[in-house]
Amino acid sequence: MKKILFYVVIFIVLHLLVVLNVNNIPIEQLNFPLKENPKDYFPFILYPLAGFDGAHYILIAKSGYGQFQQAFFPFYPLLINALSKLAGVSVLLLGLTISWVTLVLGIIFFEKFAKFITGNNDKLIWSIVFLLAFPSSFFYVAIYPESLFLFLSCACLYFIFSKRYLAASIFAVLSSLTKIQGALLIIPFILSALELNQFSTASISHQIKANYKKLIFALSPIYGLLIYSFYLAKTYGDPFAFYHVQEAFGAERTSQGIILLPQVLFRYAKILTTANINFQYWIALLELSIFLIVFTVLLFELYKIMKNRTKNFNYLSINLYSIAILILPTLTGTLSSIPRYALLSYGFFIALVKIKSNAIKILITIIFGFLHIVLFVFFIKGHFVS
After folding, report:
1. Less CB within 10 Å around the terminal CB: N or C of the chain?
2. The pTM is what?
3. In sequence order, which ranges of the chain are alpha helices (DSSP H)?
4. 169-220 pLDDT per residue, tens
5. 263-322 pLDDT, tens digit each
6. d(Cα 108, Cα 192) in Å, to the nearest integer?
7. Among positive and negative, which fits the CA dihedral 176, 182, 187, 190?
8. For the purposes of burial, counting CB atoms within 10 Å of the CB of 83, is it exposed (0-12), middle (13-18) or buried (19 or more)?
């Protein structure tokens, strides 16, 4: 616990030091997103951490949903709004506080659920190192719901794996009210139920009764999504407004049907072989590279699980959940923001722990860390990186 708290505090402090020196960084400063006056944010010095989606979350917390903002799920801005009124401090400060506190809680529960997969060993600390060093993990310290989702989803996974389904259901509902990816927690829920039934010796009638109860829990990850959809239907007449407004954000996402992964990969291959080499070109290359690396590692782990016919349902469930997390955003026809979505593919970071050579682990950490710093600098200077 103390070691985790130390790592996370150092992680936050190092990012704050970079933010405090943002004016000394020799990269062109872009306009603040939404063209608001940065001085309206207190403390002003931290406003670079509220860029892009963060600006939308602040506006939703202050004034409710505006045009096209239905893409942003409600729990994070609602929490900011409620605590801001209760504490009487700025929404910027409250949003950052929530991100930093839930980052600590998220790492604690990440370690807890990972122990069900890897066992309680010293190598597990590497999964935390990889997670925090990952190129896009700076979003954990920004006005983004990534830290909150890390806490809620990892707590849900921990309670699923420890068979405490009521607690898991509560965290699952809150997860899917925070990000749409929370609905995918239904995968480990269902696999956990299957694991119990596989070794059950109860009568058929008792199993059906038990399954009925477990089904209510297993479906809890979609309850938050249903609640938000009901709100959108009542307020805007469109229960899928969170999906239909995607095209308004200029990331070349489509809300007209589903685009299959091979089509997306072909599109990126065409971009990288025909487009001019500029900042957007390198971001596209980053998106494709991170997707292929994470996806390949997860598929390789899935192959080993199936080949060895392991009875570790927990590892199978986190692997399938991580793959689904990675594929979901590609269905809109782009890999935009994949570096950020990859943060939710927890199975990837656990898989890297299996690397036997500490030298390779250190090299991976250095590469992750270098890209992390570069992307964070561009982010706080107003450049879209994920």
Report:
1. N
2. 0.93
3. 2-20, 53-63, 75-87, 91-118, 125-133, 146-161, 165-178, 186-198, 204-218, 223-236, 241-244, 261-274, 279-308, 313-327, 338-341, 346-352, 358-380
4. 999 999 999 999 999 999 999 888 776 555 444 444 555 555 666 778 888 9
5. 999 999 998 999 899 999 999 999 999 999 999 999 999 999 888 766 678 889 999 999
6. 22
7. negative
8. middle
